[in-house]
TrEMBL record, chain A:
<dbReference type="InterPro" id="IPR010987">
    <property type="entry name" value="Glutathione-S-Trfase_C-like"/>
</dbReference>
<dbReference type="GO" id="GO:0016034">
    <property type="term" value="F:maleylacetoacetate isomerase activity"/>
</dbReference>
<keyword id="KW-0808">Transferase</keyword>
<dbReference type="GO" id="GO:0004364">
    <property type="term" value="F:glutathione transferase activity"/>
</dbReference>
<dbReference type="GO" id="GO:0006749">
    <property type="term" value="P:glutathione metabolic process"/>
</dbReference>
<dbReference type="InterPro" id="IPR036249">
    <property type="entry name" value="Thioredoxin-like_sf"/>
</dbReference>
<dbReference type="Pfam" id="PF14497">
    <property type="entry name" value="GST_C_3"/>
</dbReference>
<dbReference type="InterPro" id="IPR036282">
    <property type="entry name" value="Glutathione-S-Trfase_C_sf"/>
</dbReference>
<dbReference type="InterPro" id="IPR005955">
    <property type="entry name" value="GST_Zeta"/>
</dbReference>
TrEMBL record, chain B:
<dbReference type="InterPro" id="IPR004045">
    <property type="entry name" value="Glutathione_S-Trfase_N"/>
</dbReference>
<keyword id="KW-0808">Transferase</keyword>
<dbReference type="InterPro" id="IPR036249">
    <property type="entry name" value="Thioredoxin-like_sf"/>
</dbReference>
<dbReference type="Pfam" id="PF02798">
    <property type="entry name" value="GST_N"/>
</dbReference>
<dbReference type="Pfam" id="PF00043">
    <property type="entry name" value="GST_C"/>
</dbReference>
<protein>
    <recommendedName>
        <fullName>glutathione transferase</fullName>
        <ecNumber>2.5.1.18</ecNumber>
    </recommendedName>
</protein>
<dbReference type="GO" id="GO:0006749">
    <property type="term" value="P:glutathione metabolic process"/>
</dbReference>
<dbReference type="GO" id="GO:0016034">
    <property type="term" value="F:maleylacetoacetate isomerase activity"/>
</dbReference>
<feature type="domain" description="GST N-terminal">
    <location>
        <begin position="16"/>
        <end position="97"/>
    </location>
</feature>
Amino acid sequence: EYTKLNPLRLVPTLVDGDIVVSDSLAILLYLEDKFPEHPLLPDDLHLKAVSLQVAALVGSNIQPFQNLGFLNLIEEKFGPEERLAWPKHFIEKGFTALEKLLKDVAGKYSVGDQLTLADIFLGPQVYNARRFNVDMSKFPTLNRINQELAELPEFQAALPERQPDAKA
Amino acid sequence: MASVAQENPGTSPTSAKLKLYSYWRSSCSWRVRIALNLKGLPYEYKAVNILQGEHHSEEFTKLNPLQFVPTLVDGDIIVSDSLAILLYLEDKFPEHPLLPDDLHLKAISLQAAALVGSNIQPFQNLAILNLIGEKLGPEERLAWPKHFIEKGFTALEKLLKGVAGKYSVGDQLTLADIFLVPQVFSARRFNVDMSKFPTLNRINQELAELPEFQAALPERQPDAKA
């Protein structure tokens, strides 16, 4: 049934009438175009590029190395200890880069005081970092931003534990 | 079609011209080279030898603390990550657009880019391969990238099958094509049988004919080794 909707079998998938979009970044950029109110990217090209770099860093350099399919593969090939060590390694490496990237442009949020894609990609990644025992005090800028985001109702409503399919 | 424009580091004028820090063999750098050619944007090629760790040098780190290659420098603005760079170029230099206007087709092009950029390439970059080779041995070092490429290409073949024309998305050159070519090149290196992916194979062959793609080939870069 799901494959009929989306032959790629990827999650998340957004359905907008006839249009089916996978991949979180592609979905977010689609939403930006289709629903331009409450923009999630800065107008300034430099700041926009910074925000997109954060999204790309998390989406390409960190998250692929801690998703379930990958971790199962690591455990199968290397054993259960590596299953914990690999994601921690990649998250720390990626966060080290992110900390440098955002240090000088962050305001209240990742890029100045506007909520952007950078924040959207950061929140879930910090949540996962904690699951893999990453010491967030090593990344003070990211930690501070994440704490600000955690206050927002829109971010709270999106938390895993608040979704209809959440398990106790 | 836009003209190919690339100058050798030694002879290029200074000024506000774009600079691209690139490694000849890096598929991420290769994507940006294609895009700059398609948009007809001259740039200064600054070679960074990743194999020798030049991206960790004091000089490069000063320019870009992230130590990432490719890095684009546009005056005061420094952008890393091939997708972020390409989207920056799309905004800054809107002529020769590399994304469709139609939102559905645009989304497909971006999905293709993300599939390659997040679901395939990260699992076959040099650092990962070295790690796999070190921990599991040389056979795994070949099997591992082959597995991820085939998995990703299976999804990409399905994604593009219904929308491809001459190129990935209809007959317009888009980001999907830019991300595809370097990945197919890698696929061949890892013994992926491209006949299993007829749409991707055909598109790739079309793209290989284009001068902008040819000029971006690794072997044609100033830092290419024999």
